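User: For a benchmark we're assembling, each entry needs the component sequences followed by a predicted structure for the full assembly. Here are entry 17's components. Please fill in the structure.
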Amino acid sequence: MVPLLQLTDIAKSFGAVQALRGVSFDLRGGEVHALLGENGAGKSTLIKVVTGAHRPDSGTIEIIGQARANLTTQEARRLGIACVYQQPALFPDLTVAENIALRLEPTGAIRRVRWTRRRTQADEWLKRLGADISARALVRNLSMPEQQLVEMACAIGANARIVIMDEPTASLTQQEQQRLFEVVRRLRQDGVGIIYISHRMEEVFALADRVTVLRDGESVATLRLDEVTEASLVRLMVGREVDWIFPPREARVGEVVLSARGLSCHDGAIRDVDFDLRAGEILGLAGLVGAGRTELARVLFGITPADQGEIRLYGQSIRIASPTEAVAHGIGYVTEDRRRHGVHLEMSVANNITLASHTRLFPRGWLRREVEQVVAAEFIETLDIKTDGADGLAGALSGGNQQKVALARWLATRPKVLILDEPTQGVDVGAKSEIHRIIRNLAKSGLGILMISSDLPEILGMSDRIGVMRSGTIVATLPGGVDSAEVMSAALGTMSEGQAA
Amino acid sequence: MRGYGRELTVVALLALLLIGMATAAPNFFEPQPLLSRLTAAAPKLVVACAVSLVIITRQIDISVGSLFAVCSVVAGIVASAHGTLPSAMVAAVLVGTLGGAINGVLVAVFRLPSIVVTLATMVTWREGLRLYQQGVFLNLPENWQWFGLSMHVGQATLCGVGLLILVFLAGGLRHLAGGRYLYAVGSDSSAARLAGISPPAVTFWTFTLAGALVGWAAVMSVVQSPQVDPGTGKMLELEVIAAAVVGGITITGGRGSLWGMFAGFLLLTFMGPSLTYLGVKPYWDKAFQGGVILLSVVAERLHRRQSD
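Assistant: Structure for entry 17:
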């Protein structure tokens, strides 16, 4: 039988980053093929290649036996490829029928749309999915799983032969999950091929016929589900040597600076988080995307204050209701999305560096240029920020140097605790080891550092201790330098909880 | 904030206009008509400063013209009741501050879009004033005009006061932490928040300060004539926004300086009379002004593309 989809040796790079370096993958009609891999293993990029959003640098794509060299998104759609994302990409202010019609109608602004037909069709497709949703309902008023069903209805309406589901259950309850599984099984019975991406092992085992594991942009194995165990899959996912030299750890760890007890948010983004962070220590936070690591950082920095629990600074209970208060308490936060939140691209390097420490540097509110220049020059030198002067625009710097400016902004506040969210994301290799060295030196100087990273080697190599998060809570605290498989197992939830403590 | 390329373009344009006038119509620079013209523009300059501050924080205030009228009338009423200049001044500034604070609360606390908020307050002040005053002019006490000084001294004083306010505000923007916060919030308010700055507080105080400045501008205008016209300040908001935009204060916030705005302001102020001197029919004045605004926006875009 000709496979629905056959990818051979797909490679794709973005600048210096090689996202895919030779992925082969095939999908047959009437199967659920799971795609597994760590954060950054290349799953999203691969999906974008299949949907025509990215054109691969090399390799071939065959759809139902036909080579498609220049696949575009329109063409992919026409060929029956549909994608259901974790966050449905629907228009909230249009009705269900309107959303479906928008997907399915050929383009051309002055074509007539037969709305009555579209509505009956939409109702029919939704019914086939076993969904109790009216085609006239506004998408805004639908729940997340209902919106996913609308996406699925689009897929049915487009007569999709290949349906890609990207972590479809991430925001679903148990019951909703079961219904989704039924839908998936029904599609499979109809001969549709389903690419199923999920971090949850139990789902993969419940649903998939075959599984392909991606690691560092390569497909390391494609196996039938009856050939594998959870443990062997985890090994395949992480099975790599740490090929990075990290600065040596310092053994001297001081008193507890920051600690949390029972931190929870009503929306469940984090729940019951406990940890202690000591002076001079790097506490790594590992976990999969969506495990609540960034949410925890946002709670600690007062962006979304916790609803329950206690934060203590040097043993004293404090309330952090806003970033302003966090800064006043000596907490710094270098954000994940540096370009949007970390630095002011339109301001000079010097202005950026001093922005969070005006109260310390200029207690009378009068900006003293000479002080600012001295502070900026100091950080430009110690962090080796490559800029054409302290008055150069931050927006003109490279990613790694912008990250250093963001770091300098917080160091200038003389913090006691520094939260780093993906400190080396999007940073080139040279700058990366430099940033590692800087982080280590900061810890050595007595800062407590909470480091979030999706880069497993980075977590393993840098952290003195590793807190592993899953579903909004820290499920395990492991010593630095443990086996990567151990961290992955805890993050995926394949390890028993007792073992984790 | 670095790089004055954009501002220098405006200054060059202004210089070109002035040099052109010096050769084509030298009597343009005779002191008396020039001083009168500048005096008439002085209150506008203060309002332009106010709006510029608001625009730098990535907001807009189109209620300044109506607020200006309200403050003028308030000054007039207090004048007829009390007759003392200081009380009228204080009243106008207080009412202006209050008007600005109302905008500030609605924008900063209730998070409403400033274009809608100030559109609403613009209409409300203007119509409320019309209802209350029915278009009747207010007569001011005799000794009020020019603060009771001679005309020349009075005019020079007003120009000086306008300039002084500009210098203070420009200095504050540059040298005070608070001034830096305006840019930080305007260029990226979520990043500013993460740096420990409170964007709502900055926004509120900026609107409030803008209101106070408008109140003071009204005082500067009222003392120039023996009567208060309750219809004053119409289209003022557009003139001052134009000055800011021409002067390189980007409407998307976070960029520009008051000095650039000053250059743009002078350019637009001088352009109309220049055209008259050159014998162009005054109907064309607005068209030329529109042209300059468009030109400056295009220049901004090109400049930006270059620096990106």
